[in-house]
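Re: [help] complex structure
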Amino acid sequence: MFDEKDVILDARHITRRFPASKGRELTACNDVNLKFYKGKTLGLVGESGCGKSTFMRFLVSLDKPNEGEILYRGVDITKLKGEKLRQNRQNIQMVFQDPATSFNPKMKIRDVICEPLLNFGRIKKSEKSAKARELLEMVELPGEFEDRFMHNMSGGQRQRVGIARALALEPEIIVMDEATSALDVSVQKTIIELITKLQREKGITIGFICHDLGLIQSFAHQVAVMYLGNIVEVMPGEDIGEQCRHPYSQALLASVFDIKMDFTKKIESIESEIPSPLDMPPGCPFSNRCDHCMEKCRQERPLLKEIGPGHEVACWLYE
Amino acid sequence: MAMLEVNDITISYGTRPTVKNFSMSLEEGKICSLVGESGSGKTTVIRAIFGLLPGAGKVTEGDIIFAGDHLLNYSKKEWRKIRGTEMSMIFQDSGAMMNPTKKVGAAYTEYIRTHENISKKEAVKKGIMMLERMRLPSGDNVMQSYPFQLSGGMRQRVGIAMGMTYQPKLLLADEPTSALDVTTQAQIVRQMMELKENYGTAIILVTHNLGVAAYMSDHIIVMRNGVIEDQGDRDHILYHSENAYTHKLLEAVPSIGGTRYV
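Output below.
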């Protein structure tokens, strides 16, 4: 299903440390390796503070890792500077969680959508209105919305505008950071349908951050589970469910409330709090909360190991 | 008679009614969920029950009876007496209801001493005991922290601990898990189920997570545009409902092993 020659973006050994008080260091991403394939969606799941957003911010060059490289078409984008960096932004765009706060509230929708196009000289000022209408219609909004402001629109409509703006430059990759978690389920469904439709038509690669496992399995081709800055499992999207192997992925799955679940079962939850990334356990990051923890887990960090087609797990249980 | 009876209430902000002809009743130790999209009036209903409608909000018709008393005739003083003792509320983000410049302990002891005439020391002790009962490790540490130093799940537990200090008969929970991760959500849901079992607390839960609502509730009310669209127990809502809107909502819930778009 995943062909090596379709790799469009390759993140290798990404590590990011933030300085903390008393000379300590907070490791937000620890040796992350992920590949993005042309026209496919990679879902990144994990609890808050596990480093999902930190990682995705490297892709859109909003931050730089301390170590590692991100190859986009053979070029390491973490080393780009100046005009080259600016030009590269056309290729990778981002949709934020709350479009109401990520856009200027005083700008009309037309200006919001066309701003990136004007910045890169793709259109003339006189073409703005026509282009805005075209993009609005692409995200299934009426063209008249070009005269509106953000506050005149509902959450779902705003998110569509966010998508229209991200797609205005026709990027190859878009990164969505919890793009639907502020929306109602019924609106969320329509947004997901729109995203998948646009992906099919334009062959866009999507990086999607999410903590809803049910949602991510409905449209991701590939799912990566992150815990305390480490990728603990990478698997094909349809495998999430019975096929997931890492104890942490299984624990995540066990804590999902699903309308199709067995309501008589006791809820299983990991009772302890997630440890602070400031004092990470030396061995496996999950060792202190894991039911299957062995002696080895406390001493040595397991690396990702292939256990099936497109399925990798970092756990000593599967050595 | 049921512990809480809401009879045919209409709530308006200004002239237009926001919630129309809403009725429900709740027995001791039962959980009822209000589900529906944003703006359907779920929060307005529980705010009306708690006497906390903002601004021009007013119950214009109907009656709310709690433990035999007509709540709508209550004076400010009477409200203050039952809020926090007979019924309490948990908010979406309990951190936001606490003063950010005060430690959790300061807010908690103030709350306890408003309702009970005891010394500061005893109040602190009581607070720590409640926090630990809500499975917060080292309660004294939590009391010494500022709200921003706690994680979302811990803050929510502080909120629940505060709400449960006087073992209220009725707990109103406004999206108590929406801002939390799935793992933390599972912990909080479990804790609320334990409240029901251990203290016989009745809970009204406002949520848009149908999975959580289905798991916890004895009764589910589906709201839309301020009116009750559908209601019944879990079996009815999930499997036997013939209401088109309920179907639409259920279909939209992503579930493991459900529809795949790719």
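Residues 41 and 197 of chain B are 29 Å apart (CA to CA).
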